[in-house]
């Protein structure tokens, strides 16, 4: 029997290392965080969706099957999720959707993926349907990003939100879809994020351009993806394709180096890898901004052993790795690996 009211929560994520690798069949090391999006869904007796975004004081309403694109903003995600679920033969019932979030929008902490995942889980639970496997659900949410929002993102954000584990990062291989939990044991060290003050939107930033450049590099080299790149091939690429491809190759290597550093509790080496990742994103991938660079310097001035932009770039939050005793800059937000997306018990 279908439920009358359910609540689902999906977390945002921090990507420890491995940026712009997911859509290149590469490697990444994200973790879910405590902040996220909560969707409370109450069944109605008709085919209408009423959605309320409490944080914004906004609402939307439409009939299922008439989710014409696109009103923009959060409304596009709601309409896209219901349409993509229906296209995948997943039942969607008329409902009131109450949406609340604790992730800053445009911060590079994956508020959009958290919204998509929370909406899917709430609507599936309301219809008393077992969710599909995480990879299938992540792909459904990715279609919302691609076809409704216009952002050609990979699967990193959705998989991190769906598969998060307490005290663990996730080594994700986007070629094989293998997900390996990695203990994130930092002792008295801490990870914080700091807002650059510059919000980004993938659909209107240079994000899609970078994805296109990677595809052009693959076409020029006659390889399936940049996962197949041999560094000797780089000399065959014109600028800036050579720089984009070099970043992806070296970033994949940094992911496994970070896994090794965590296994050996070499936190100083982890900080070095974060700095190297940031330099590559700035100099080879060209996704930094003056506001992001200033934020990196603020964290390093506070003693960070490593600091790098997170998310797709062009603004958002910066991740810092602080040693014991270091005082983070004002406004810094502690982040720790937490549990993945789930339907909440009514008593929660």
Task: Please provide a written account of the structure.
By secondary structure, the protein is α+β, with helices and mostly antiparallel strands. The protein folds into two domains: 5-180, Ribosomal Protein S5, domain 2, CATH 3.30.230; 184-334, Alpha-Beta Plaits, CATH 3.30.70.890. The chain is 35% helix and 22% strand. It has eight helices and 13 strands. It has helices at residues 74-87, 111-126, 134-149, 156-163, 207-221, 241-263, 267-283, 290-301, and strands at residues 5-15, 27-28, 30-43, 48-53, 58-63, 95-101, 168-173, 178-183, 190-195, 306-309, 317-322, 333-334, 342-343. The strands form three sheets. The chain has a six-stranded mixed beta sheet, covered by helices on one side. It is globular. The model has no long low-confidence stretch (mean pLDDT 93).
